[in-house]
UniProtKB/TrEMBL annotation:
Major subcellular site: membrane
Protein name (record): ATP synthase I
GO (cellular component) term, any one: plasma membrane
Cellular compartments annotated: Cell membrane
Length: 127
């Protein structure tokens, strides 16, 4: 599980870098709505990633202890995505729907890119 924690921390670091770039975008570009929407979606995505990581750890402990296994929280992730949509639809002058959805997908994109990078790094090490 230690490598799982390191992987999660690496993902959080990458997402925080993206949030810093988005914040600069809000401050220095005329596309405030786009960058605010990306920030909203990415923050909710980061919370979903943290929640999923916590649930996976509990899931692994339950399996190791041969206890009953609970769900991984799909309903809570859907509720958070619905919350983001409600915020966007309530404040259309500040947020846009498409960049918010892209922000919601950020953690998954970061996971995929990190996986490919770690695989490339591992393959390069073995050759």
């Amino acid at each position: 599980m230690e490598t799982f924690q390191l992987m999660f921390l690496r993902h959080v670091k990458y997402i925080l870098y993206l949030l810093a770039i988005y914040t600069l975008g809000v401050g220095f570009t005329p596309y405030k709505t786009v960058f605010l929407s990306l920030i909203l979606g990415t923050v909710i995505s980061l919370f979903m990633l943290w929640n999923l990581t916590r649930k996976i750890e509990k899931f692994g402990q339950a399996v190791a202890a041969r206890k009953k296994v609970r769900t991984l929280g799909t309903l809570s992730r859907l509720a958070l995505a619905a919350l983001a949509a409600v915020i966007v639809l309530t404040y259309p002058q500040h947020f846009a729907l498409v960049p918010t959805v892209v922000g919601l997908m950020t953690s998954y994109i970061v996971i995929i890119i990190d996986f490919l990078f770690q695989k490339w790094k591992k393959d390069k090490l073995h050759t």
